[in-house]
Amino acid sequence: MKRYLRKPLMLGVFLPAAVLTLGAFSYQPLKYSLPLELPQLTVSAEASLQELADISIPDYVYTIQSGDTLSTIFQTLSVSQKEMYQVLESDVSILALDTLKPGDKLGFWLKQGRLQKLELRFSPAHQVVFSKVADEAFEYDEVHVDGEWREQVVAGEINGSFYTSAKAAGLSAAEVQRVSALLQDKINFRRDLRAGDRFQVVRAEQFVDGQPTGNTRLEGLRVLNRARELTAFMFDGNYYDLNGESLARAFMRVPTKRQFRLSSHFNPYRKHPVTGRVRPHNGTDFATPIGTPILATGDGVVTRVTKHPYAGLYIVIEHGEKYKTRFLHLSKALVSKGQTVSRGQKIALSGNSGRSTGAHLHYELHINGRPVNAMKAPIPVADAVGDEDRVAFNALKERLLTQMSTTGNG
Ligand SMILES: [Zn+2]
């Protein structure tokens, strides 16, 4: 682990593994860990604050390495496990700590050894900040920076499988999976493609302050399969074919076979019953008895199956670039990370895990990285580009097609 030291590390006495009692729940604090593969935490100091030349410089910045756990990081900085759990309690609304991966940075602001602020720096485009707002409580802020998207054409010819050909041309495994998912109703990539068929993809890469963030999106693509031409163009966050027909399959409104009573509504302004502070409820709660089958609401890829001390066992599914769903407090997961799922597929059994006041399902829908009311938000319906958008769509389509054709491969 790299640590940027601004002032000498205070070697306070770490509280032994006392059991914290939080609400109706007891935890062994040391058992909570990040979902990273774990060799032991090693500490080596490295002083460089250039990238943080800013008035609000954290007292410590950690760069996460494989093997780190949240507990060991807090322990190394002599920040109490109790404060770690206070941060985790705020994290239940955003579930950001579980997405930390090697290379991400953690900024700590301390005052007399007590945590004041914790910044999760995932990339120049995405940060989450937990700030102390009361003696026992933290609140979070999420920062998204859109930056600049730079386009690039990736083109190639089928030689072997689509996967190996597209990888050889420069697409990542995740991008190949996205292309396959987009065209899954139009072509069977294994059966229908022939050697010599061609493909072209306009990919955009995100930059913030000149730095790549690691995020990419597919703006347009074309597969030339003998006499057939298969296309996808991203317009207003959704994908359409050459004729402006949607490539998305419709979503289901609720993640269960039958509708259960809504026990708590989506409410970004909900107040904590005890502290009176805003503690957003970013999902919809359904009064599902333990063991109720939970269904994927749209086609997608499972990106997380994780346990959180407050959210319990939960699943995250990404549905293309724009939509994401989350299912909390489960008793059993029936899918695993990386798995492709289709709308209506059974993915889990509901439960009462984590900090939960009773058996229920907490279901979230996110559009472009932000939680929305899943019961009211415009969910994808298999629809065409509207008449009022035709001119804009056609202009976009022509621009992307021209780009693809200038690869010398069109
Ligand atoms: Zn809920």
TrEMBL record:
Q: Which Pfam families match?
A: Csd3_N2, LysM_OapA, Peptidase_M23
Whether Protease counts among this entry's keywords is yes
Q: Which cofactor does it need?
A: Zn(2+)
M23ase beta-sheet core domain location: 280-373
The record's Gene Ontology biological-process terms are: proteolysis
Segments forming domain Opacity-associated protein A LysM-like: 62-141
Q: Which InterPro entries match?
A: Cell_wall_metabolism_enzyme, Csd3_N2, Dup_hybrid_motif, LysM, LysM_Opacity-associatedA, M23ase_b-sheet_dom
Q: Which PANTHER family match?
A: MUREIN DD-ENDOPEPTIDASE MEPM, PEPTIDASE-RELATED
Q: What name does this protein carry?
A: Murein DD-endopeptidase
Native source organism of the sequence: Marinobacterium halophilum
